[in-house]
Each structure stands twice: as C-alpha cells, then as structure tokens.
Design goal:
The complex is a heterotrimer of chains A (320), B (629) and C (316). Chain A has helices at 46-53, 76-85, 103-114, 119-132, 149-161, 179-196, 207-213, 231-236, 241-250, 292-295; strands at 4-13, 20-30, 35-39, 61-66, 69-70, 86-89, 167-171, 199-204, 216-221, 224-230. Chain A has 320 residues and is an alpha/beta fold. Chain B contains 20 helices and eleven strands. Classes of the chains: A alpha/beta (320), B alpha/beta (629), C mainly alpha (316). Chains in contact: A-B, B-C.
Chain lengths: 320, 629, 316
Amino acid sequence: MSDLTIRGLRVRVGVGARAFDAVDGVDLDVPSGSVVGLVGESGSGKSTLARGIVGLVPPRGGSVLLDAVDHARARGRRLADLRRRVQLVFQDPRASLNPRMTVGEAIGEAVAAHRRGSRQERAAEVARLLELVAVDPALASARPARLSGGQRQRIALARALAVRPDVIVADEVTAALDVSVQGAVLNLLRDLRRETGLSLVVISHDLAIVRYLSDSVAVMHLGRVVEHGTIAEVLDAPRHPYTRTLIESATAAAPSAAVPVGEAPDPLHPPSGCRYRLTCPVGPAHDAGRRICLEADPGAGAAERAHRAACHFAPGVAGG
Amino acid sequence: MSRLRMLTLGQRALLAALGLFVLLAVLGPVVWGHRATQLDVLALDQGASSAHPFGTDGLGRDLFARTMVATRLSLVVAAVTTLLGFGIGVVAGMVPLLLGPRARRAVEGTIGLLVAFPSILLVLLVVAIVGPGVKGTIIALGIAAAPPAARLTQTLAAAVGDSDYVAAARLVGVRPGRLLRRHVLPNVASPLSLQLAQAMSAALLASSALSFLGIGVQEPDYDWGSLLNVGLDRIYVVPAAALGPAAVIILASLVLNAAGNALAVALAGERPAHGRRAAGDAGTVPVPEAAHAVAGDGADDAVLRVTDVSVRFPSAHGSVQPVRGVSLAVGAGERLGIVGESGSGKSLTALAVAGLVEHGTVEAAAIEIDGTELRTLSRAERDRLLGTSMAMVFQDPLGALNPVRRNGRQIVEAARAHLGMERDRALAGAAARLRELGISAAERRLTQYPHELSGGMRQRAVLAMGLMTEPRLIIADEPTTALDVTVQRHVLAALRQVNEEHGTAIVLISHDMSVIRSFCERVLVMYGGIVVEEVDADRLDRAAHPYTRALLAAVPDMATDRDRPLATIPGRAVAAEDAPDGCPFAPRCAYATDRCRAERPALVPRGTPQPVACWHPQAMTAELSQEAR
Amino acid sequence: MRRIWCLFVLRRLAVLVASLATLVVATFAITQLVPGDPARAGLGPTAAPSRVEAQRAALHLDEPLPSQFGHYVQGLVKGDLGKSFASGQKVTDIIGDRFPATARLALLAFAVTMVVGLPWGMVTAVASRGRPRRALDTAFSSTTGVMISVPDYLIATGLVALFGVWLGWLPIAGSSGATSYILPVLAYSALSTGMLARVARVEMLKVLDQEYVRVARSKRLPLTQLYVRHALPNALTATLTFSGLLLGGCLAGTVVVENVFAWPGLGSALVQAIQTKDYPLIQGVVLLLGGIVLVVNLLVDVALGVLDPRVMTRER
C-alpha cells in the first residue's frame, strides 16, 4: 500500500474571466492505511481537490506523490498507474452509474481494464465484489434504475474496489442518501479499511461523519487547508476560528455572538490578507485592532503553528 | 422482439400504417406504373369518378395511379435527406468533444447561429447553387437538416461527456474506444433516434414544398409535391387533383411521425411505471379507534389545530394517500418540530394545512386557526385569515423570491394586500425587519433583486417577508437544508429570535434530527404518511417508537462512539404509494409481529407519557444506545 | 451597471457583424459555386455570345477572386445589387417594389400569432392548473398539433378549396383589397400561432410550478394579483424570446404562401429567380431577408436583457 502526499496543489476551474483557483496551494498527507477526513462547506474546493488528486482535472501546480513519485499532470502510463492506485467515489449515486448498463457490466469493465481473464473469471470477480459491499450478487444483471440510492452507492464503491486501489477518495458519498441508510455505507467504508488496509480520504461537509471515520482531519476554506491534525487534537482544541465555528455548528450550539453574518467571500476576488476575515468571529469585523488580518496571508506562517493553523492568532507550536 | 409486444393497440395500428406506406413505396410503380403513364385523350382534365378516383390531368393520366407511384420518390427523398442531414449533424455535433475549450466554443457558436438562421433561406440558397431536381433537393434539405441535428447531438454529447459515470469509467481505466461505444453512443443515440422519425416527417413536408414550388423534383420525375403543384392550378375545375395529393402528404407525415416515435420508444425498452395499489385504496383509510383523540396539548390556546388530515392524489391505479389521518396542535409561542425522511409526508402535511396542495384533495375533520374552523369562512375571509396569521418559509431561498421583481415590493405585498398598509410605511417596516434579522444596508437590499443576495440573506429576507403581517404561526419547511451549516445556525437563531421576541409559534419541518432536537420543544415523528410518535425534545433519548429510536441511533453526531458500528435501519424509506397495510414501519422493524403487519396502531399513549403509534413501544426506562446491527 | 450594458450590447453587435459578414460571403459564393458559367446559365442557351460576354464583364467574372469579392462588397455598400438577368431591372428596384407586400403579409401574420397564440396558451395553462381538465388539454393539444404539423402550403390549399372554390367567399390570388389578405394570413400564421401557443402554455406551467408562485399563494394574495404580478412577467420573458425568433422566421418564410396565392412579394420573386437562374436577384433577396432576421434576433436579445435582470449578471 502506498503513501499519498499532496504538496501545494493548485486546480483551476472556470473559463476566461470567470476562472479562479478553486484549490489554491493545498498540502495533505495520507499515510498508507490511514483515514484522512476533509471537511469544508460549499465553495471550499474539496470536490475540486478530489478531482485534481485523481487526475480528472489536471492540476495547475503542485505535486501528487505516490511513494515519492509525482503523478500530477501525469499522462499515459503514469496516469494509468495513478488511476489504478487512487480511486474516487462520487457524491450522486444516480449520476455515477450509466443508466443503460447493468451494474455487473459497470463493475466488469473496471475488472477487465486491469486484468486479463476469461468471462467466467470476470463474472466471479464481480460476484465477489458485490458480496464485499453487501449487495446481492443476483443483482448484477439489474440496471441502476431498479436499485436504491444506498445500493447504487455501494456498487460505485465496488467498481472502485475492482481495480484494487491503494487509496479511495470518498466525495460526500452519503450526502444524497436517506439518513437511515447512510450508516450502512459508512460502516462499509470502515470495514473495508480494516480488512484490506486501504487508505481513505473522506470528504464531507458533515463534521460528525468525518469525526466518526477519520484518524486525522483537514479543514478547508476557500481553496486552502486552514487547519490539520489528528481528530482528537483538532476537535478538542481547535486553533482556527473557522474550525471552531464548524464544531459549534455541528454540536448545534447557539451562535456565540448574535451578530450579522458578513458577506461571504467571492472566490473570484478573494479578500486581501486572510481569506476568512470577512466572516471570522474574531477577525477585523469584530475587533478593529486586528489589522494584520487585512494585510498578511496567515497561510505563509502556518507550518510554525499548532495544527498548521492558518490564523495569525493561533498559538504557536512552542507556545500555548 | 419481446419489446414490440408491449405496444398498445393504437401504436400497433400506427406501425401497420407505416408498413403500408413502405409497401406502397416498393410496389407502387410495379402495380400502377403502367396506368400512371397511360394517356387517355378521351378523358382529359376530368374530376373524380369511379374510373379515376382522383381525376385525370391535362394529358388524361390517372391521378390516383400517379399519386401511388409518386410514393416511392417522395419517401426515398425524405429518407435520404434525413440520413444525410443526421449524418452530417451527428458528426458535426461530436466534433466539439475532441477539441480544446476555445475551439469547442467557436464550433458551438457557429452551430447555434446556423440553427437560428431561417432554414428556408438556407435551402433556397443551396438549391440556387446546385440547381433544382432530385439532387438539389436532397443536398439542400440535407444541409438544412444538419444544424438542428448537430445542436441536439452536441447538447447530448456534452451532457454525457460531463457526466459522472463517464468520469468514473475513465477513472477505472476504460479505454476511449469502449467509452465511446458503450457509454457515450447509447446515451446519445437513443434520444437522437426519437428525433429521426420527426425529422423524416419534416423532410417529407419540406421536399414536397420544394416540388410544389417547382424547384424540387423536375419533369419527368414527379412526387407528391409536384402533383400538388399541378393540381393547384386546376383546383377550380378539379378539386380532387389538389386535395388528393394534399391528403396523402398529410397522412404520410403524420404516420411517419407518430409511428416512428412509437417504434423508437418501444425499442428503448421503456416501460410504463407499475405501482402497487395503495393501502386504503378502496375508499377511505380504515380509521383506528381513538384516532380522533386530538394529539398534543388539548389546550385551548392552540394557534393551530388540525384533526385527522389526509391528502389524496389520483394515480395510475386509483389513488394514493401520502398523508393519512394526521392530527396536530400548536400552542401559542410553541416551537414544534416535524421530523421524517423522504416519503414520510411531513412537507405535504404542512402544505395541506396551509391550503396549498394542488392536484390533490385534502380531507380533514377539522382545521382551526386560533379556534376558528377554516371551512366555515368564506373564501375571502379565509384568505385574509391565512394571509395574516400564518406565514410559510420553504426550502429553496432563491426560488422563494420572484427573480424579476425587486425585493422590497415582494416583501411588503402581503401586508399591503391584507392589511391595507400604505407603501412607504410598509417599506420602512420591511427595512426594520431586515435589520432586526441581521441584514445590513437594509434599505439598499429592498431595492435590489433576489439574485443579488446570498443564500443565508435570502432566507432571512423570506423570514422578514413572513413577519410583515405579524403572524401567529410560521411554518418552516426544511428552511436550512440548502444552506451551509454555518449559515444554517444563523438562520435558526433568527427564527429563535422571532419566536422569543414576537411570540410567534414555529413549526419546523426537517429530516435533520440534530436541528430539530436543538431548536424545538416538542417533536412529531412521521413515517409513511402517519405520525408515529409525539415526544418532548428533551425526552427524545427515551423515545418509545422503534423508528424514532433507530433514527436517533443511525445518525452520527459529535458524541457518537467511534469504536462501534453505526446503527442502520434495513430496507429503505417507503413512499406512501407502496406503503403496506398495517404499520408502515413493520417491514423494517426489528420488533414487528403479525399484528403489526395487519393492523395499524393508533396514536395514543400506551403506557408511555406521550402518544406513540406502535403495538410494541420500547421500554421507556432503557436509555437509547447504539444498537448493534 | 452601465458598463455591463455596454459590454452586453457590444458583444451582441460583434456577433451580428460576424454573421452579416458570413451572409455576404455566402451570397457572394452563389455565383462562384454554380457549376458552369452563371451568365450563360442565367441568360439561357440561346443568348448571343456577345450578350453573355457583356454580362460576364458586368459581373467581373473574369477577374481574380478577391477582386470580384471587392466589387461585390463595394456594390453592397453603394446600395447597388446589380441588375436582374431576366428583366434587366436594377435588383434594388425589384426588391423595393416587392418587399412591402411581403412585409405586410409577414407582419400581419405575426400580429395574429401574438394576439391569438400568446393568450390562448397562457389561459389554457392557468385553466388546467389544479384541476386536470382532460377535455381542455386534449382540445388544445390536437388543435395546436394540427396547426404545427400541417405545412402552410397544405393549409393554404385546403383554405383555397374551401373558401375560394367551394364557398367562393374570398379571393385566392393577388393582393388587392383587404379581403385578399385573409386567406394568406390565416394559412401563414397557423404554424407560428400553434407553436407560440404551445410554448406560452409550457412556460406558464413552468412558472406556476415555481417556488415563488407557491409562496405568493401562501400569502393568499388575490388571484389576479398573483397571476399578473408574479406569473405573467416570468412567463412572458421566455415566451417573448421565442416570439422574437418567430418574427424573424415570419419575415423570411413567406415564400411558399406567396406562391399559392400569387402574392406579389419577395418570396415569389425568389422562387422565380431560382427557376430562371437570375443570380443577382437571388443574391439580393437572400441578403436582405437574411440580414433582417439577424438584426431582429439582436433586438430580441437586447429586449430580453432589459426584461430579465438576471441576464445582466451572467454577462459579468
């Protein structure tokens, strides 16, 4: 199993005047066999990051290292190698399966793409994968329309597993599912990781889900990681105000200050200095003395701070 | 072949008619060819008769025979034209897929322009160059048919190309050839083939038009259009000479269109939806005893009291009842929550109470606002009462505001319509409300349009809109689902503020249990169209109904034990139309017995402090814990 | 805000100029792409060689391609479209003579389309909302279905047979007097009226399904206020775009109807010109009609920008 390391990744979206870097210099470590959670709201760039990692969108800059070999902007053999080792499961189970193909065929072509074998061998492998994800193998001849959202998501997982990847990136895989079936998919991810030693990158806007599955967590805001650490560290003692806000929202505590929410930042024209300052509960909007937030980008000094927090007022590693 | 058996009688008749035309095209010249060229100098320019059903032309030739013979040329020209046009169009439409973004936009723009250009001018232009005749007709019409086909192909291909399943296939290493063959083509070809029949029908009409104008098929060839041309000149003398070909053209094009579509739909393998008959389909739902006992406080200061409301929709198999016998009461200033998953009927219940159900019938024993039964009021009085005492906030903040009207006018219109407030006062009041809810620059916001506000601001503007009439009750249906979690908090805080400062009762509907728990005082849990439990928010941990308990256990929160598997509920949430007799949760319930499957339990206290609709309510003393799978 | 507007209009104008340029090139290409000698083809096989030579010289056909194009464009700019092969008249004169008849026919048909089609579609949508009214919907679908699928020349034939021949009530040829307009306008407007009615109905139904209409209903506003202030403006925006395209189509598509009713307009002139290979006339008519359509489309786009404030934000 491989270590996945991402350094300074940049991914551009949009065309012409409306183009911007949805992922703007992201570092992420996914050691072999671990589960890394990526939490952020809409517009944070987490889905774009997922697509950039697997090469669906060519990154503009930075590197995607698999065992120290850079696969960003890979082509040909290296791209095929990347795709065999890092797989992505999409959010919408209705859109990620071809409506005119049986699920068995969808999984089968993934099997066939990486291994030569007879039709029987393929069918057997498809059945094995379906059982692995707790779907009745008899459903291999069914089309997606006949299956429920939860089943479809598990089939998408089976398809990703068919190429025997080292890392699976799960992008909001339960967001489109009913609450009562969400658990089945999350349990499945947990079990798979335990049984096969797979690494997982769990992307979600739901901090509770990320907390449940992950060993470590990275918090994303407007294209950057603003805090990164183990689950215990980050959730017990968050260093970045945005993380604190997310935690408070997730525990459904009342907002600490009944103040107007400022304008949300425009990704096309991010604010100067710290990108979070417009809505930061302890930033210049609340405390006029905090001028540094307007001028300097806190990401620059993040490495020296606890949890690599991108905030001028987060305590340093040496300090408290 | 088996798919063809699924066609209805009408569709089979259409296909038979199509077959007849094809037969005619093949056999026409064989059977009537001789008669069509036979000159009968004794019967020139004759009207319809038994010997000549369509009359004769200036050279004494039988027009009926000529019409039959003309079938072949007319249909062949139409077919070849369509294939040519689609051929060019499909290729042109697929080309952008292979190009870079700039070139792609240029090609797409060109296709768009060509589609907008009137095709008749294009056709005439090409005919002018190539010259009239069969060749000119085919080339001209083929070129004119290409842009719409290209546009359609391009749209389809783009949609498929951008789809997640193609991305997923690329990700697992499917080769481009197979991608095109098994993923792109089938999803593009199917909708395209539906268009083929229509296109051929249009081609037939167009080629006949050209011949009719004299610049299509030329002598000695003749098709229906040229026969019509000749016939029109003599319409005063021999109407049949024109009406005959005209009727045939219309018939052929209609048959082509309809039959082709039927065939394409059948081949695509689409089946009509089969739904099971809903429970209680034979009439009304068998109302269990004591269902009329009003759930909730029974207090007289109830702002809203609804007794035994049901909603019925007509369906393919009779009718369905997504909401069955729901009763609820909301006290003054209370915060009530209604929680349930998709298909539980929670939103529909709210719509039924507000009188907003369309295409369906609402039945209820009573609907009272502040003690007044709505149905005793006249329409105008009811509108006034509902318009002023109740406000609704829906899920989609952008959709709730009319995009082409300024915010200010929308926010004040209910107050002006029902309370007769005059404009400036109303606008000042609106600005005050916006400020109260934390929206800065309130006056400016009033003059702006909805799309200029962010999601959270819009939702609060909608809230302000609802507050203008100082309602006693606000019903909020999934108001925060479409919002980011940080914004969500602020919107809920705003709702809370309204509740505390204005004494407005709030009914919050959501699938998100944590939101309901933190916001509401009392909770109604719905499943399969009925209320399965009523419980105070702080007693949720001791909920009695298996569904409530399962729902609470299944959702991870910040305190969930990370070492144990998450609880799940087997099966999936049912829609009301598939709900069985008996308790709707029985198929998924760990404690279900035969009684549960046969008889629906009423919503009453069953040794529990609060009502629960269950034959086997779980022990109240057992703390809710994460149950093993 | 003003800057965005300027950008918006400028972009559309740029597209218009590009399209017009393409049209000019396309019409120029007619004489180039014709197999054989256009002058000979236009004058006929029996014309004297000297006449053919003179014609070729007048069309600059022996000069290199760029120079020919230069002459063509020069002529356009000066308003000189050449002389008709058949009659020797200046093309601009012929167009000037015949365009008013076409314009009257097209504009009348368009007016009928708007006055009949728009309200019909919208009222049907409002009436069949809430209570599914089978009879109403079927009547609407079948009537508009007939109007859309039966082409104008067949409708015209039918009308001629019914009103001209059998009943003898209305004139069926020429454009003399008010009554002579009735049949041609009826035949010509059937297609566009049917299409517009359908589009209007669909758009209105879409709007009635929107959340803000539901919200307006929840406010229990009086129904007229609801429909007129909330539903209508939104339904109109989409419908008017379509109507604009119809206008262009109406102006350019009179060819067939003119033929049936011997209407002295540009359409019949064009068909004749094609039959007699009168290339200068063909070029002139296609240029004029095509140009009108392109300009009308631009105006519709701008009008849409005025009506729908969201269009402006997308421009940014």
